[in-house]
Amino acid sequence: MQETTSGDSVTGVDLQMHSIWEQTSWLEADLVVIGGGLIGISTAIEYIEQHPGRRVIVLERGFVPTGASTRNAGFACFGSVSEIASDIDLMGNDAAREIVQQRVEGLQRLRARCKGADIGYTDDGGHEIFVEDHPALRRIDEVNSCIVTVFGNDAFAVRNDLVRTYNLHESVHTLIRTPYEATVDSGKLVRTLWLIALRAGVDIRTGAEVLNTEEHAGGVEVTVRTMTADVRLRCNDVVVSTNAWIPDLVPSTLIPSIKPGRGQVLVTKPIQDLRLRGSFHFDEGFYYFRRLGDRVLLGGGRNLDFAGESTTSHETTPRVQEALEKLLRTVILPDYDTIEIEYRWSGTMAFTENKQPFVQRVQPHTVVAFGCNGMGVALSSTIATNAAGILG
Ligand SMILES: Cc1cc2nc3c(=O)[nH]c(=O)nc-3n(C[C@H](O)[C@H](O)[C@H](O)COP(=O)(O)OP(=O)(O)OC[C@H]3O[C@@H](n4cnc5c(N)ncnc54)[C@H](O)[C@@H]3O)c2cc1C
Predict the structure, then answer these.
(1) Are 235 and 379 contained in the same domain?
(2) What CATH number is associated with residue 241?
(3) pLDDT tens digit string along 236-248?
(4) Do 263 and 347 reside in the same domain of the chain?
(5) Per-residue pLDDT tens for 169-183?
(6) Is the pTM of this model over 0.70?
């Protein structure tokens, strides 16, 4: 042990001593990306495509990426009427349109990147349902005209006829549809991106938890905890794309405040004669459900306990899971007697107060990239493009 490790000024870190071969071929890079979710892996791809031959290492602490990207619902969405109306109130017309534009462009970029690969892309449209009166119902025209330049025509239309088509409960009095929303298989999507990155020459190291980064003149030292030892990588630039865990690595003075938000999800067993199609938003986006093969995926309920769900813990709770099941049985699948749940999980979102993405060089060699605010399938590619642009 004494021969292979050396003490370090950073508390609790016991660095492994390395051979010259390990040091030069495995522990040095032009760019280290921390976090292998949608933003991290897309940034690595963008960067290496712009700089073929440069060395890029992605460090992911999980065996698979374990934040939001492989635990989400897979909506390729740009915002529902109530969400965009609320964005108009928060940030004004121009900024609300701009963020929709960024999501749409991000999705185009993502699809182009994954062209030819099976990412489970299904364009059955997106829907928002209402069981009570809501101010957003009187703002459909306003939202359509706010984003008309993005799509070239109205994105949203009331289609109450679909309530019966989809076999939703009759308490759903208004259903708004957009043809521009789609769904993906999030597992296939992230795996496809990892394979694209590997093929482009990116190194991906899993089980590699970054403990800290330290800026020096000319570069950054990245200390990593692995199963066998603590190691230190040297690189010219680092991108921190760990989403809800960014505050663990970047001083709070350099970034906007980030609040974690747990999203709990369930998936049913296969259901015969399922008539639901596409993706659905409910209760201002606090609940979301979709068809997944012949199953239903349903998530949300964070608004039942904002304080309790502001956590990075990946547990599920009876309170939220019971609320999800009730919604499933009463509103989504009212005509089905036996519905069994096969999967339950949770993932971690990260929220900023202004709901804007944050992509900035916060120190001479450190770029921070995050800010999907719970809607990152589409936006992550735009954030990655911007991050790669800043790296130069
Ligand atoms: C339940 C749920 C449902 C969602 N549904 C949708 C949806 O339908 N549509 C949509 O557009 N968006 C959805 N989202 C949001 C979307 O998934 C996220 O916005 C997006 O995946 C964020 O990507 P990211 O790369 O920033 O973060 P993440 O995917 O969280 O990636 C961060 C990565 O960093 C790793 N990491 C953390 N700390 C360290 C460290 N110290 N060292 C190394 N690695 C580290 C984590 O393991 C993780 O893999 C949902 C999110 C959740 C949780």
Answers:
(1) yes
(2) 3.50.50.60
(3) 999 999 999 999 9
(4) yes
(5) 999 999 999 999 999
(6) yes
